[in-house]
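ESCALATION

Customer reports they have been waiting on this structure for their group meeting. Please prioritize. Original submission:
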Amino acid sequence: MKTAMKNRLGRYALMVAAAAFIVPVTPGAESWTRRAGAATAKTITLGIVSKRPQAQVEAEFRDFIRYVARKFSTPSSAVEGKVAAAPTVWQLAKLLEEDRVDFYMDSPYPTYLINRQGAAIPLLRRWKGGAAEYRGLVFARKDTDSLRLEDLRGKVIAFEDPGSTSGYFLPKIFLVTKGLKLAEKTSLDATVAPAEVGYIFTYSAGKIAEMVLSRKVAAGAFSNDDYNRLDAKKKAETVILGETENFPRHFVSIRKTLDPAAANRLQETLVMMHQDPEGRTILQKLDNTTKFDFAPGGEEAVRLKLQEVFGPQP
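Update from on-call: job pushed to the front of the queue and completed.
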C-alpha cells in the first residue's frame, strides 16, 4: 500500500467514534478497584462506545458484566460489574490512560485507533454474530452500467460511517489499492470529477442497500453479514463488484495497567464462558456472540496486523 494513501487515510482517525468508558475512579485507586472512604469497593467495568443514552447501553450489557463480576468475586470480597458508554475513541483513550477503564470490546479499526495510544492491548477475539471473521463487499445493481470497479469513476458510492471497519475502512482501502481515487462528498448532488469516485456516509447498512437499489448511488459497501441479511429478491437484483480480505470481527482489549491477576481472570472467564450454560445463553443474547478465543498468533500478531492494515507507513 502506498505511503501517500496511508497518510491520507490516517487523517480520518479524527472522525471516528467507537470505544469504551468506565465509571469514575478516584485518584490513586488500585487497579480495577474504587475506594469509598475507608472501604475498598471493587469493580470490573466494561466500556462501550455509543452515543445512545447510558441507560440503554447498561441494559444491553448488564447480564454480561454481572456474569463477569461474579467470576471475579470471592466469598469474602464481592466485585461489582459496571457498564458505561463514551461517544468517541478519544474519550476512551483518555480514560484508559487514567486507569478508569478495565476492558472494552470493539471492531478492528476503532481498536487500532484506541490501542495505538499505548494505553490498551488486545486480549481476545470475539465471535460476534456467530463468526470469527468478516469482510467488506462492494456491490451494485445487477442492471447498472457500473459492473466493474473502474466504472465507478465519476460517480457516487455509499459507505456506512467513518468508524466502520467493514462498511468503510476495508472497502476504501480495497478500492484505493485497485487504483481508484476516492473523495468524500457532502451530498448526492455534489460534483464528482471524472477521475475520482465520490462517496457519502449513510450511517445505516439498510440505507446503503436501499440507495443502491433505488439508483441513488452507483454502488455501496458493507459487510458480508449485512449482505447475507438481504432478502432473496434484493440479492437477486445486486451484483458483487469486489470483496476485501477477511478480518477478525471484534476484539477484547484491556488497559495496559490492569493488574496481571485481573487480566488473567478476565481472560479465563471469557474463554470459558461459552462452555457454561448460563454464560452461553448470555452470549447468544449479546449480538449472537458464539465465544471468545485467542486470536491466531496472539497479542503481538494482532497488533502487527492492525498496524499493517490501518497504520501509516514509516
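Sent to customer with the following note: The chain has a mean pLDDT of 85.
Escalation resolved.
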